[in-house]
Each structure stands twice: as C-alpha cells, then as structure tokens.
C-alpha cells in the first residue's frame, strides 16, 4: 500500500486554515495564561518535563494489566517528585505549591501521568489540609517530611455509604483521656472510607475525617492525621484494613482505596487543631468561626473549573483540527468531498464549545479574583461575601464540569467512529472529565445550594433588603425596565436573561409558598419543587457566565481584530444558550417568538463567520502535542498515518497469528473436519 | 469491622418497595418479550447458558492485559458456538439465526462475552450478507462451512478515511477477464479497511465492499467474499496486510481490525451476485432494482433500537434499585437519611428513563411489524413503503441510540461516585451503548435523512399529493383543527406535537425556499439550514414515538392495573418531552405559557405517582443478575457487601505491599534519610 498525497493534503488543509486567521493568536494565548510572563513560564516548564525521556511510556497504558499500569504511573510520579526536589531551577520556575498543581493537574500533568497520579492527593489534599487546618506546630511537624516524600499522605473523607452529605459520616474518633489518644473506629460496612486516591497501596498517612466524640458528646466531623502503614516496611498497621477499590471508568492508576479501622489509636495531637481543639482532659474547644471551611471549598471548586476547562480545550482542539482534515460525503453532487467543518451541523457541535472555553475561563477567573481579593478579610472574620462566593463556586463547579463533560463527549462524537479509538485520546479526556460531575460535591446537590441562595435572596429583596451583586437583578423593578427586547444587542440579551431568571425564580417561589400555605412542611414543599429549583439555578449561573464573558471580552487588553473574534464567540454563546433555553425567555416575555426566529438566523450567520477562524482559535490554546496526545488532533494534521502507526504497536500485532488461535480458535475451526 | 444491620436494611428496603407494587409484573415481562411463550423460552436459554461454568471469568477483564482479555473472550465465544453446534435442544430452543443474535447481542450475550465477542460479526454480518446478497449457489458453497465454524468471517466496509458515505469508498476490485479474477487493491492509506470486528486476528474470510471496475468503468461499491488468512496456518495471505486497530473506549475484545490489499486476486465467482453480476467476459449486469439494499438497512437499524433499549433497561434497573437502597442527607432536619429515590430530582433522572424503555419498545416494535408485513411485497418489487420505513428506521436508530446513551449516562451519574466503579457495570454499559451513536450510520447523517423526507413530504403535500401515514399530519389543514390546546388530554398533547412539528417544518421549508430564491444553490441552502433541519427530524421522531407509545399502551392485552401504570409512564413521557421542547410548542401556538405551567405541575404529580412502582417496574424487565452484572443493581439489594467483596479481588490487593513499592516508592521515601 502506497503512502500517497492525501497525507500532504491533510497537512495542507491545516496550513490553509492557519493562513486565513483574522486575529492575533498570541494575544489569546497570553490572555488565557494571564500574561506574557506566564505563557513563557508555562512553555519553559513544559519543555523541561516533556523533554525528559523518563516520562515516556514503553507501551500504551491500555495494553497493560491493572497492576502494571499502576506500577508504570507510580514510576513516573516518583520521578516527577524527585525531579522537582532535586532541581532548584525547576522549583523556581513553578513555585512551590502552585507548580505541583500544574504537574498534577489537567495542564501538563495529563501528559506525564496519563490515567491518574497516585501521588496527586498527597500534594493537592494532604499537604493543603495540614497547612489549612493544622496549627503552626503541626505544620512544623509534618510539612517537611511530606515535602521530601518521606511520608506520603492522602485525604480520606468519603465513605462507602456517605458522600456529599458530610454530617452523615460514620467513622468515629473517640477521645480517651486516660491515654490521651483518639480511638478511630469503623462501626459498620458503610462507614468504610472509600475512594481516596493513593489510599490503596501508595500512602502511608492520611488526613481522615471522623466524627469527634469526647466526654460522651459528638462534635461532628473533624480532620485527624492518621498513620496507616509502617514507615519502614510499608505494611498496613494493626487495626487498619486497607486496599484498592478496583477498576473504574477512568483514572485507573491513582489506586483509589478503601480503609477501615478497628479501634485504632492515635495521639491526641494528631487532631488538626487550627480551628477546634480537644484538651488533654477531653474538653472540646469549638472554633471561633465554623464558616471558615467554606473558604477552602471555594478554592477547590474554582480549581475544578480550571481543570475541566483545560480538558474541554484539549477535546475541542482535537475535534476542530480533525474536522478540518476529515473529508466526507458531498455538499454539492459531483464535487469533491468537503472538509466536514464545512457542514453547518459540524460547526454547530464545535464552535459553541470553543466559546464555552472562554465562557468558563472568564466566569471562573472572576470568582477566583473576588476570592483572592476578599480572602484576607475572610480570615479576619469578615464573612459577608462568603455566601455569594460559595454559591458562585458551587454553581460554576456544576456548570463547568457538566458543560465540559458534555462538550468533550460532543467532540468525541463529532469525530465519528474514530473518536472511539483510544489513540484519539477523546475517550480518556471524557472519562477523566466526567468524574468531576460527582466528586467534590455532586452537581445536583450543588444546583440546589445555588437555588437555596436564589430563593433566600428573592425573599429578602421582597422584604426590602439589598442583594449582593450576582443576584441584585432579583430586586423588584418597575415593569418598564423589562421592555428592552426590541433591541437584540448583547446588553439586551443579558437583560433578557435577567428577566427570564427573575421570572423563573418568581414562579417557583410562588409555587413553594403556595404549597407551604396549603399545609406542606417547607422541606417537603422544597423537595416537590426541586426539579424547577435546580433549573433556576442552572439558568442563573448561565446568566452569570454570559455576563462575565461579555465584560471579560470588553475589558481584555487585545487588538481590535482579536476582540472582534472574541466578541463573535461571546455573541454565539449568548445566542446559543438563549435558543437552548427559549422556553424561559418566551414564557417570561423577555423575548418574542419573532426574536427567536431572528436569533436562529443570526446563529447560522455566526457559525459561518467563525468557521474560518476555528483552527486558529484552538491553535491559540497553545496545547503541546504531547499534552493533546491524540492521533486525530496533532498540530501537523498527519492524522491517518499516525493512526496507522499507533495501531501497529498493539501487542496483538506483534505476531501475525495470535497465541489464542492455537488454544481456542483452531480446535473450533477444525472440529468438523 | 463488623457486618451490621445495614445489609439487612438494604434488602428490607427493596422488599418494602416490592410489596407496594400496584400492577402485575409478569404482564409487563411478557408484553416486552412478546408473549408468555417467549418469556419461558428466554428464561430457559438463560438458564442453560448462565449455569455453564465455562462462561465465568477467573478474574474481571479490566484487570487483564489487552492480549489476555482478547484470549479470554475468544475462549468463551468459541465455547458458545461449540455448545450451540453440539446440542440439538439448544438449537431448537433458540432457533437458528435468531438464537445466535440473542447470544451475541445485548440480551444474554453481554453476560457471556462482556466486552465484545470476536465472533459476533461472523454471525451478525458475514453470514447474513451471504444469505442476502449471494446467489443460491454461493449460499451453498459458503454457508455450511460458516455454520460449522470451519471458516470465520467478518464484514469489511468502513475505511480509515470513509464511513457513512458509502460512495466515497476507495478500495477497488478490478476485473481481469484474462484470468477471470478480481484484483483487490488499496490505493491509498485512507482506503485501508478499518473497524470491522473480528478482522484483526480472528476471521480468515471477509465480505469486503469495494468499488467494482470492469471494462474500464466503475460501477460503485459491491460485496466480495475474500479469503484473508490461510485455512491451515491462519497466516495472513500474501497481498493482504491486516491487524488489530488498538484499544478503544469500550468493546475491547472484539479485535476490530484493519486490512489493506496489494493487488490481491480472487475468483470472479467471489463477487456476491444475487443482485449484480459480472460475466466471464467482463460484462456488468446491473441489478433489477437497486433499492433492495434498503431493506437490509431497515432490518439492521431496528435491531440496533432493540439492542440499545436493552442496554437502557439494564442501566435503569441498576439505578432504580440503588436509589431505593442508598440513603443520603436530610429531607427534614433531624430525621434519618431518606432513600435517595425520595428526592424529586432523583425521580426526575430515573422515571422518565423507565418510560423511555417503553417508548423505544413500542416505536421499534411498530416499525419492525410494518417491515415484516411488507417485506414480502418489497421482494416482489413493491417499494412504495420503503422510503417511509427507511426514514423511520434511520430516525429511530438515531433517537434510540442517543436517548439510550444519554439515559445510561444519567443513570450512572444518578448513582454518584459509585456509578464510576467498574463493578457497578454502568461504565461498560455506557461505553457499549454510546458506540451505537456513530456506527451503522452516524446519527447526524440519520437526522438529515429524516429531514430530507420531511421536506419532500411537506412540498408534496402542498402540491396536493397524499402523504404516507407517519407524515400525513404535514398535509395542510384548516386552522380550526389547531384549537385543541385548551384540553391537555393525551390526544391533545399528541396533536400539539403535530402542530409543533408542522410549524417547525414549515418555518425551515420557507427559509430554504427563501435562500434558494435569493440565488443560493439548493445544496448550500440546505447546509445553511441543516441545524434546524436536524431539529425538525428529532421532534418528528419524538412525536412518532409518543404516538406509538400511546397506541401501544391502549392496545396492550393487560389488566387495568397494569395499563394504569403504563399509561402514567406514557403520560410522563409526553409531558417530559413537551417541556423539554417547549419552545417549539409555544412558538407554534400549539400550547400556551399557562399550559406549560400546568404541565410542569403535572410532571411533579406524575413523578410522585410513579415513584412507588419504580422498583417493581424495573423488576418487570426481568433481567438476570448475571446479565445486570452490577454490585449496585443486584436483585437482593446487598449492595455494600458486594462492592467490598468485589474490591477485595483486585490483583493489587493480593499483597499488602505492592511490588511497585520496592521498585519506585521506597527509593523516593528513603532518599532524604
């Protein structure tokens, strides 16, 4: 079989796409990185790590057994830490904690340890927990050893029978003043700790969340540092049963584990005591403020937004480049097969997802900024902004994880059957991204927390209270301000969003009230309205994202050509989501049926206008081929040859006739002879 | 750790659910099976195969290497055939071809070969192709050898660069009259056959689709029987390059393969000549009717509907049972954690999917019935009904595969983090089901074929032609018939659907016409409207499903109690999808905003009314625990203990300290000492 000109065709296709770029790619790269310096720094770190042959896999992880996969990723994870610890230049490049997150997370990390890093939780949860919840003495005792890798920890909260609802945890830590110890115990099978990454075989310590009992009273879940394995032999300690929980949809190499205790004793001083304390005599000292933990949750959830957004960037880069290479069917009979990106239905799958990347970016950036601005005053006890920040981080975590997971899947399917191939990398990007829908707060629970804030704010507004920025539009206004819909400008569409959400919130608040008035307990009424409540929350957070997207583009320090393409993406995002939620706009009177027809026609125009910039837009995400790790999405467009080369590496292809033939197939085929 | 009462709690929960069943489960089981006899037969076959220890796995396939997984499934696949060939009782039980499909497909098959059967395409595509496209002599030559397993075949159509668009295939078969042979050749890398199951290592023959050239002219793609491997040694023949395409999102054990030819010669008589022929001198004899192939496509696509529907049945059975066992959070503060099925948001995820199972069942059954009714007259050349049947099968294939895949994923996510565990089986059900979105006709292409039929019918109706049954509502009617919306009966809602789709089709037809009138080529205008065209198609097929669901329930021979619960499910399906597409109903005037509010309130009522029957409904799907294969979904509800037992089997748990510790972790941990 000859290698023929179609390889060059593919590469020429991308070249032609790149030549018609209407904007400055580098401006977008630095905008997303947060500045020229950050772009330089990121590229330098990528170079250092990606040029290290130790991070290459001898064979695709999918070919290995479960045990061998774990061993291979553990090898690379250990090398990563060693490299980091041994090289001062690298340390300076990446900065302490931040850098480790880059190496673990969905940026560079996915290229180094592909299907989960068994040491990730050590850096992302264990050490931050000690820093955030330990006293200065405790930090001194543990952090040095943790940094050097002398001890490896994880964070054990979720139990077999208990997830998002923290108060339901069953593991107990009962204080025994006679020995000044806590006794950790798992009273039931459902109290087994279940899921923590690195817990199965890697970690020898964990921060364990357990119900604190002292003097016969329960004080709720508290964090304890617990040794799990012998530091010398790595054997699990007496009273500690632990292991790996078995295979998963994805992330199969971070040895998620289970753990149960049988009256396991630890010193009193292993309770992390920055906030609450238990004195030697068993006296419980409650924290000055029990809302402080919300700060950490805001931080973690916004970090998830950035993680999922990077996954979506990767997927849409792959899908866009492949759509410019893949040719199929006929647009006009008798003419050559066009690039599938020429089809409006394909543009409709991909371009709104490029817009989504920017939407999540600007919205998450805004919450991040606010969090950093107020984090000082939070620690000084000023908690005014916490409920709003908490709500926004819950909502954005839910929106970004579900948008990203659905978006990745749309990208995968937009590549047809080839998206199903592991070598496209879209399967792994999906299995990793979708996990964020249920971890760190299951999304439906997140939406209902947002709804709670919306209903509370709506009621407060009716009582004359002033509302926080993100929900101020729920304040009752004279009807005249609703009459913006004749003009379909961006501002008018954002305003239409406000009208639609206000109307939704108003309807469900009235339904809630009606049910309470007719004698239902509030909690049951809440449950009976919760499908609609979750919807309110979704449309509210969508509105917030639209608004932040728009103001982000307006404020961005870029050339007019670059602002132009960003503005088209923002407009597409607005129009796409208004059409997707059109019922809310029509029912509230925010927009009319004829507005909808106009917007549908505009959608077609926007897709056509953005199509020529599609490849350049994903190029501007500046994702290294090793981080993309995709035969379909590589920079040079040499798709088919890469697929073929990758297939040849299958262990099954190392012999023409597989061993299984002799064992099973031949006896069957020869049976009738 | 003690095993305590919560295991009994779980089992008691399911027992309590079962006690409040309002209908006759067995009636639903037999309704779905197609009669009492079929239920008995199915159960007997299940018993025969599931009691055979040869079909048990020594270890979960996920723990094995890629090669070992393939060998393990090949072992079971061969045993399956042998068992079938050797046992006359089994042959009688399952009937020839039908029975093999049961054993391969998503019913019993998934319990026997879990992640893809390397022999499936031999029975599902290779043999049916010979039967459907071969002459009687060809059938005589090949079918006996194929039945006995003496030769193993597959079906090679898709190429690396060519999928749904059949005419784009590049593989050539050029007739050489001097030797009376066809020369098969793969002229480019993109012409490589890519994807066929069993092609990589298992099959020694294939039906290959190639462009037929004779006397210098191309006659389009035709099917050829091609030997690929030596019958004695199983080595690939000279001129034939083939292998496995590497790992995938799922179905990793059916050795999907690649294949290319270098001037590979086969006898003239290996062209399957039932329809077209090439004579010895190279004369091409065209088929009497080139539409006959559509019949097979209808058959294959309806079969996919039944396959995906069984996958959704499995997923929703797991999610429903788990939701009756899992307890979480508080509905009313201070009270015990309720079953998560008590939460309206959880009911909203699950109950519409139970309804979807019936919706797909009735709609697919109706197309299947029509197909069987007319199949005789089709072969007699009466092709009147073919376009409608073809359209419905395209649309239902797209609707059922995307509804099922999304539904399975909703089920997985409704189980929280535990749905991510392989032992829940939801990951595998998803990865298998989602494949149907792109295979046998990519769904977007399917939707646009439906749209083409809708627009054609709409135009014909305006020219006074009579339309076929499924689209007869597109015939212009006096406005008065639209005024049904004050009454929200089932009939009124179905009529509202007709009004909404008619309006949608009318709008897009006008837009198309407008663009053509302004000078656009029709094909470009079509592309510029294709997002809306695809939407029309989706709502049309949804309407069709609603109508068939309703009439299926009305006609079902069941007790009134059973009809009652089916009718509630049907109503839920209608209301759920009207709310989901509310924009179309509002814009067409089919329903008013206040109708929508009423329907939303009714939705809440329906969820509450169906909740007590949820577990009994999925019980009535009568899925054997081995076919469910889920720790979360098992009949007895002993969820947590099963999860724990399953986890203990992980190879990583066979040693307390893993080998990788000594190799990688210990050197890191001890480096600083």
UniProtKB/TrEMBL annotation, chains A, B:
Q: Which InterPro entries match?
A: ACOX_C_alpha1, Acyl-CoA_ox_N, Acyl-CoA_Oxase/DH_mid-dom_sf, Acyl-CoA_oxidase, Acyl-CoA_oxidase_C, AcylCo_DH-like_C, AcylCoA_DH/ox_N_sf, AcylCoA_DH/oxidase_NM_dom_sf
Pathway recorded for this protein? Lipid metabolism; peroxisomal fatty acid beta-oxidation
Asked if the keyword Oxidoreductase belongs to this entry, the reply reads yes
Q: Among its keywords, does the record have Lipid metabolism? A: yes
Q: Where in the cell is it found?
A: Peroxisome
**Keywords in alphabetical order:** ATP-binding, FAD, Fatty acid metabolism, Flavoprotein, Lipid metabolism, Nucleotide-binding, Oxidoreductase, Peroxisome
Domain (Acyl-CoA oxidase C-alpha1): residue spans on this chain? 294-455
User: Cellular component GO terms, alphabetically?
Assistant: peroxisome
GO BP terms in the entry: fatty acid beta-oxidation using acyl-CoA oxidase; lipid homeostasis
Which residue range or ranges hold the Acyl-CoA oxidase C-terminal domain?
A: 492-670
According to the lineage, what is the superkingdom? Answer: Eukaryota
The Acyl-coenzyme A oxidase N-terminal domain covers which part of the protein? 24-152
Required co-factor(s) are:
FAD
Active site, UniProt feature: 440
GO MF terms, alphabetically ordered: acyl-CoA oxidase activity; ATP binding; FAD binding; fatty acid binding
Where FAD binds, per the record, is at: 158, 197
Family assignment from sequence similarity: Belongs to the acyl-CoA oxidase family.
According to UniProt, the name of this protein is Acyl-coenzyme A oxidase
């Amino acid at each position: 079989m000859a290698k023929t000109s179609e390889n060059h065709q593919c590469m020429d296709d991308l070249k032609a796409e790149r030549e018609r770029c209407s904007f400055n790619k580098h401006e977008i790269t630095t905008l997303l990185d947060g500045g020229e310096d950050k772009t330089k720094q990121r590229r330098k770190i990528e170079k250092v790590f990606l040029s290290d042959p130790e991070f290459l896999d001898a064979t695709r992880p999918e070919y290995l057994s479960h045990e061998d996969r774990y061993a291979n990723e553990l090898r690379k994870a250990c090398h990563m830490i060693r490299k980091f610890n041994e090289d001062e230049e690298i340390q300076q490049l990446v900065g302490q904690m931040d850098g480790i997150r880059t190496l673990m997370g969905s940026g560079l990390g996915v290229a180094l340890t592909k299907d989960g890093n068994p040491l990730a939780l050590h850096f992302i949860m264990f050490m931050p927990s000690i820093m955030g919840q330990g006293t200065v003495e405790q930090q001194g005792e543990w952090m040095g050893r943790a940094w050097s890798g002398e001890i490896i920890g994880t964070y054990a909260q979720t139990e077999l029978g208990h997830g998002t609802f923290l108060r339901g945890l069953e593991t107990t830590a009962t204080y025994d003043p006679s020995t000044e110890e806590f006794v950790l115990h798992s009273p039931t099978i459902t109290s087994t700790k279940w899921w923590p990454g690195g817990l199965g075989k890697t970690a020898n310590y964990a921060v364990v969340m357990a119900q604190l009992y002292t003097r016969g009273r329960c004080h709720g879940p508290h964090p304890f540092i617990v040794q799990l394995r012998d530091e010398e032999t790595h054997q699990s300690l007496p009273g500690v049963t632990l292991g790996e929980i078995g295979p998963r949809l994805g992330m199969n190499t971070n040895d998620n584990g289970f753990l149960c205790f049988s009256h396991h004793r630890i010193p009193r001083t292993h309770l992390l005591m920055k906030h609450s304390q238990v004195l030697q005599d068993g006296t419980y000292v409650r924290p000055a403020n029990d809302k402080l933990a919300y700060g950490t949750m805001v931080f973690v959830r916004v970090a998830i937004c950035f993680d999922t957004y990077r996954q979506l960037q990767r997927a849409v880069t792959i899908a866009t480049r492949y759509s410019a290479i893949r040719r199929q069917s006929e647009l006009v009979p008798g003419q050559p097969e066009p690039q599938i990106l020429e089809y409006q239905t394909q543009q409709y799958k991909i371009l709104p997802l490029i817009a989504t990347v920017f939407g999540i970016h600007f919205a998450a950036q805004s919450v991040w900024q606010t969090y950093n601005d107020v984090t000082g005053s939070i620690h000084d006890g000023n908690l005014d902004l916490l409920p709003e920040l908490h709500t926004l981080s819950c909502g954005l975590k839910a929106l970004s994880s579900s948008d990203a997971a659905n978006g990745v899947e749309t990208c995968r399917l937009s590549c047809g059957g080839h998206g199903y191939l592991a070598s496209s990398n879209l399967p792994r990007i999906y299995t990793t991204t979708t996990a964020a829908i249920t971890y760190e707060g299951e999304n439906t629970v997140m939406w209902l927390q947002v709804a709670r804030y919306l209903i509370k704010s709506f009621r407060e507004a009716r009582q004359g209270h002033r509302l926080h920025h993100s929900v101020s539009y729920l304040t009752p206004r004279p009807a005249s301000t609703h009459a913006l819909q004749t003009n379909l400008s961006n501002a008018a569409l954002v305003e239409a969003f406000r009208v639609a959400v206000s109307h939704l919130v108003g309807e469900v608040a009235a339904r809630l009230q009606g049910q309470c008035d007719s004698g239902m307990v509030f909690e049951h009424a809440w449950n009976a309205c919760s499908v609609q409540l979750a919807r309110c929350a979704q449309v509210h957070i969508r509105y917030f994202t639209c608004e932040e997207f728009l103001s982000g583009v307006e404020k961005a320090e870029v050339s007019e050509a670059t602002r132009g393409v960003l503005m088209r993406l923002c407009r597409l995002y607005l129009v796409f989501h208004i059409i997707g939620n059109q019922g809310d706009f029509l029912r509230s009177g925010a927009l009319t049926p004829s507005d909808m027809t106009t917007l549908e026609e505009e959608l077609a125009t926007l897709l056509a206008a953005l199509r020529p910039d599609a490849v350049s837009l994903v190029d501007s995400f500046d994702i290294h081929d090793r981080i993309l790790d995709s035969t379909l999405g590589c920079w040079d467009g040499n798709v088919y040859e890469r697929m073929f080369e990758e297939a040849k590496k299958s262990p099954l292809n190392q012999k023409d006739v597989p061993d299984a033939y002799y064992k099973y197939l031949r006896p069957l085929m020869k049976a009738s002879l």
